[in-house]
Design brief:
Helix content: 10-25%
Order of helices and strands: HEHHEEEEEEEEEHEHEEEEEEEEEEEEEE
Structural class: alpha/beta
CATH class of the largest domain: Alpha Beta
Distance between the termini: 52 Å
Number of strands: 25
Oligomer: single chain
Radius of gyration: 27 Å
Number of helices: 5
Largest sheet: 7 strands, parallel
Strand order of the largest sheet: 1-3-5-7-9-10-11
């Protein structure tokens, strides 16, 4: 009888333990699923806050209000026109990474820089830059690698360089560079390839000597000192970082200056790699940075000719000690959260409907944020470097 009772009790306790374990597992699974679903839902809602149609920004106030009017909009799906007499900068557009239609920058008398477009990598339609009398360069378009239409650079009286277009690898269907009074150097490898390799319709007319017509443009393309065949790449080797790059040909190439930065903006020279003068075959180069910082390290090359003229390569980045990623803790949180930021940036807190609740300016390093005023629940947090978390507020 005792053995029977022991057996029954043992079976009962096994059932209780099994049931308890199933309850715990189910609770954990539900919480994880809820967090994942909430984050996906919020991300979708944030992305959906891009406008449904084309947008025309005609004042500086409208430019500055873009991130407020369209929070979370990075992949702009339609055409964007920027045209206004009082527009001086495009800094508020820094979150944009692609434009699905045309990008038109037209008749902005006081616009001096395109740096606010510095994260845009693709333009689905035409790129039209016309009648911007104070614009001296296209430096803010350095990250653009593809254009799905024509390229018009017309009547920009202060423009002196097209180097900002150097990374366009594909998609240009036509080129029109006309009546830019001070533009004497328009030979950029991307445009030379489009015009004379892909044979797209090209009109060069009325610019300064050196870019006055198609003949001068072709001669300048032939004389380009370096044709990059493999872009600058950075990879970690132990506690060092190896830089590699290749060029298809060199003409009067004196040397490469290797430059380093911790923020991707301010660069300092850390070494020189000798060029080969004139060399019409592909050549590989490398440089080892022995003392990088234990964080994100940014690099670029300054390619220098014998006559002192130069151009910059695209930027490459590598991280010592893990990926370049912000950290947030504790989570769940009650009164405070701490954020370890890889550089100065903005942190945004959104509610379950995707509405912006708070924004905080982060400094590089440790930051404390008071969240005691937030009601209990789930919140979506995003930084300028696109790191995201689902915060559980208790």
């Amino acid at each position: 009888m005792t053995n029977v009772l022991l057996t029954l009790n043992s079976t009962r306790w096994k059932s209780i333990i099994l049931f308890t374990c199933l309850q715990v597992c189910l609770q954990v699974c539900l919480q994880v699923c809820l967090q994942t679903c909430l984050q996906t839902c919020l991300q979708t809602r944030l992305q959906a806050q891009c406008p449904m149609g084309d947008v025309n920004l005609s004042t500086q106030a409208e430019v500055d209000a873009f991130p407020t009017n369209y929070p979370g909009c990075t992949d702009f799906p339609n055409s964007l026109t920027i045209s206004g007499n009082d527009i001086t900068n495009l800094n508020a557009l820094i979150a944009l990474t692609s434009i699905g239609g045309d990008l038109s920058i037209d008749s902005n008398d006081d616009l001096t820089s395109l740096t606010g477009l510095g994260q845009v990598t693709s333009i689905g339609g035409d790129l039209l830059i016309r009648n911007n009398n104070a614009l001296t360069s296209l430096g803010g378009l350095d990250q653009v690698t593809s254009i799905g239409g024509g390229l018009d650079i017309i009547s920009n009286n202060a423009l002196t360089s097209l180097v900002g277009l150097k990374n366009i690898m594909s998609g240009i269907t036509g080129i029109s560079i006309q009546n830019n009074a001070n533009l004497a150097q328009c030979a950029v490898q991307s445009l030379c390839d489009a015009a004379f390799v892909n044979m797209v319709t090209t009109i060069i007319l009325g610019n300064d000597t050196g870019c006055a017509d198609i003949t001068e443009f072709e001669a300048a393309c032939i004389a380009l000192p370096v044709e990059w065949s493999k872009p600058l790449q950075a990879s970690v080797e132990g506690n060092a970082i190896r830089l590699t790059w290749s060029v298809a040909q060199q003409i009067d190439n004196s040397h490469f200056v290797v430059e380093h930065s911790l923020d991707g903006l301010s660069f300092t020279p850390i070494g020189i790699v000798k060029g080969d003068g004139t060399w019409l075959e592909e050549k590989d180069f490398s440089f080892l940075h022995l003392a990088p910082r234990a964080k994100a390290n940014y690099y670029r090359l300054q390619q220098v000719d014998f006559d002192g003229s130069f151009e910059y390569s695209p930027i490459a980045v590598a991280t010592i000690g893990g990926s370049a990623q912000d950290k947030l803790y504790p989570n769940p949180a009650q009164d405070w959260i701490r954020v370890e930021s890889i550089h100065p940036q903005v942190l945004s807190i959104y509610d379950a409907l995707g509405r912006t609740i708070e924004q905080h300016q982060l400094r590089e390093g440790n930051n404390e944020i008071n969240v005691s005023n937030l009601a209990a629940g789930f919140y979506y947090i995003k930084t300028s470097t696109a790191n995201t978390w689902t915060l559980i507020k208790e």
